[in-house]
Amino acid sequence: MDVNASEKEQIESLKKWWKENGSSLVTGVLLGLSLIFGGKAWVNWKDAQTANASNSYAMMQSAFKQNNLEMARSQANDLISNFTGSGYASLAAMRLAKLAVNDGEIAAAQAQLEWALEHARTSQIENIVRSRLVRVLINEKNYAQAGVMLTQVTDVGAYRPVYAELKGDLAFAQGETEAASAAYRDALAILPATAPNAAYLRVKYENLAGVDVAAQ
Fold first, then answer.
1. Which of 12, 56, 71, 192 could staple 63 via S-S, CB 3.0–4.6 A?
2. What pLDDT score does 70 carry?
3. What distance in Å separates the CA atoms of residue 192 and residue 58, rounded to the nearest whole number?
4. 216, part of any domain
5. 21 touches 30 (CB < 8 A)
6. Is the Cα dihedral 193, 198, 203, 206 positive or negative?
7. 31 vs 97, which has greater pLDDT?
8. What domain count does the chain have?
9. Domain limits for position 110
10. Contact 191, 160 (CB under 8 A)
C-alpha cells in the first residue's frame, strides 16, 4: 500500500488487499488455532488413555490378589485389546501367560509371551519376557527356537547372569554337559551371592562339575 496516498485511497487499497488475501489469512489463523488446540486435545487424550490403562491394571492386580481369576482375565484382556501401546499391556500378557502355565496350557502361554515381547516398551520388560519365553521353549523341547531367542538379546543389562544360566539350561537339556557347566560357572561368577536363585544355580553347577564350589 502507498503510505503517501489519501486516507480514502488507503481505505480502498486496504479493502482490495483484504479481498485478495483475507480468506487465506483467516484460513491460516484458523489452521494455527486448530493445530494449537488440536495438539492440546491430543495430549489430553493421551493423558486420559494413560490414566485409564493404569486404572485397568490396578483392577487386574486387585483381582489377582483376591483370586478372582475371571475378573483378572477380563481386565488383562481389556489392557491388551484397548491399551496395546501402553506398558501395561505387556505386563497383562505376562500374567495371562502365568495363568496358562498353571493350567497346563503351554502353547497359550507361549503365545502370550510372544505377544508381550513384541509389544514390550522397555528393555527391562523385554528381558523379563524373553527369559520366561526361553524357559517355556526349553520345557517344550523347542531347543532351536530357544537358542535363537538367546542370540537375539541386545540390551542385557542386569540380566547377564539370567541369560548365562538359561544358556546352561539349554545346553543341559540337549545333553551338552560341558557347555552347561561352563555357562553355569559364568552365571555364578556374575550373580550376587545373595540373589534368590544363587543357591539353586550353585547346586546345578556342582552336580555337573562334580566339585564343591563353596570350598574353592
1. 71
2. 93
3. 32
4. no
5. no
6. negative
7. 97
8. 1
9. 8-211
10. no
Alpha-helix runs per DSSP H in 66-122:
69-82, 87-102, 106-118
Residue 2 lies in a domain: no
Q: What rounded mean pLDDT belongs to the chain?
A: 82
Burial letters 150-171, b for 16+ CB under 10 A, else e: beebeeeeebebbbbbbbbbbb
Reference 132, options 116, 155, 119, 144; nearest CA is 116
| Cell numbers describing residue 59 | 483392577
Cell numbers 528393555: residue: 123
Hunting for cell 488475501 — which residue is that? Answer: 21
Could you tell me which of 59, 96, 58 has the C-alpha nearest to residue 77?
A: 96
Q: Are 97 and 112 in contact (CB under 8 A)?
A: yes
Q: Are 60 and 95 in contact (CB under 8 A)?
A: yes
For residue 74, what is its C-alpha cell?
477380563
In this structure, what CATH number is given to the domain that contains residue 40?
A: 1.25.40.10
Q: Above 70 in pLDDT, residue 107?
A: yes
- Specify the amino acid at residue 143: Y
Is 138 inside any structural domain? yes
What pLDDT, on the 0 to 100 scale, is given for residue 137? 95
